[in-house]
Amino acid sequence: MEKLVEGELRNRTTVQEFILEGFPAVQHLGHVFFLVHFLAYLTSIMGNMLIITIIWADHRLHIPMYFFLSNFSFIECCLITTVIPKLLTIFLSGRQTISFAACFTQDFICLFLGATVFFLLSVLSLDRYLAICKPLHYPTIMNPRMCYLLVASCLALGFFFMVVPVAMLSQLTFCGPNVIPHFFCDFGPLTNLSCSDTRSIEILFFNLAFFILGSSLVITIIAYSNIVVTIMCLPSAKERQRAFSTCSSHLLVLSLMYISCVFIYVKPNQASRLDSNREAALVNTVVTPLLNPVIYTLRNKQVHQALRDALSRVKLQKYQRGSLL
Q1: For 181, which DSSP code?
Q2: DSSP readout, 216-241?
């Protein structure tokens, strides 16, 4: 009997690859969804890269806020590039296979970059607080060295917070089934597929996600509460309107990201609401990156001026070349 059990255990194969299910209910509209998401992806990449280029090319935008925004845009580009190409393939061809190593690599990169984004949003909140509430101390505190240190800290925290739960999950047994009810390898669906006891990992991940989202939210609330009080004390209505306009865009992006991420990740049991997680994840991977360039900077007067100046320089160069010919 013992030999029979041992033989069965040896014959028990482990999962070598996973299958990303995508959105089977709308697969008959795959080509339409492919076109919509491809255009959204292309627009997001071009918008964010345009922001990065303008910020680094125009010396007037070499201030802490735009330095953080350029890093934010770059991370957004990396995050959606990790997810969207596979989603586009699913829309065209249906279910897609992904190797065990590639799946956990994708999961880690998404979580690492996602956590980094929330830490960066906290830094942006602090930056706006110092600029509006402590304008005299702002240049001294937010010097170039501090800006680089803050971005490096966000990346380091995102890495160390997410590497542990993903590494622990990858060491568990996956004996089947291997169909992931999602369009990318996310932590919750992978946990649900494991044959091992995942309670300790789920609790660890819940605590980490709660800390990342909770701390970022608390910092943002405290910062913007002080900002609102300071703005209300401004003597000029025009100054109040300009300050509120700058902060409202930040708060809109924060609201979209917090609501979707709390819905997906802040729950002790990762097996719950797996089906609805797909729709919520689209907000962070498609909708928010598409809106960020418009909300954060393209509606900003300084960026508008930088764009106009860049276009004027291009037209002038073309005119000069035409004159020489």
Answers
A1: S
A2: HHHHHHHHHHHHHHHHHT-S-HHHHH
> What pLDDT is attached to residue 103?
93
- How many Cβ atoms are within 10 Å of 193's Cβ, its own excluded? 19
Both tokens of 199, joined, read: 């309670």
From residue 111, give the alpha-carbon distance in Å to each of 104, 195, 217, 295: 11, 22, 18, 24
CA atoms within 13 A on the CB side of 319: 6
Q: Where are the domains of the chain?
A: 17-266+274-304
Structure tokens at 134: 């402590």
pLDDT score of 242? 67
Q: What is the pLDDT of residue 60?
A: 82
CB atoms within 10 A of CB 62: 13
**CB of 172 closer than 8 Å to CB of 204:** no
Two structure tokens written together for 8: 């069965």
Task: Provide the pLDDT for residue 9.
Answer: 36
CATH architecture type of domain 17-266+274-304: Up-down Bundle (1.20)
Q: How many whole angstroms from its chain centre is CA 320? A: 42
Distance CA 11, CA 77 (A): 43
Give the residue carrying structure tokens 């964010």. Answer: 48
The token pair that represents 265 in the structure block: 């990740």
Query: What does the pLDDT read at residue 268?
Result: 58
Q: Which amino acid is at 291?
A: L
Residues 125 and 12: their CA atoms lie apart, in Å, by 52
DSSP output for 136-153? TTHHHHT-HHHHHHHHHH
**Cα(81)–Cα(59) distance, integer angstroms:** 29
- What are the average pLDDT values for consecutive 10-residue runs of the chain, which has 325 residues? 40 72 83 92 90 85 89 92 91 86 93 94 90 88 94 96 93 86 88 88 91 90 86 73 68 76 66 62 81 70 72 68 60
- Contact call for residues 168 and 7 (beta carbons, < 8 A): no
User: In the 8-state DSSP scheme, what is residue 29?
Assistant: G
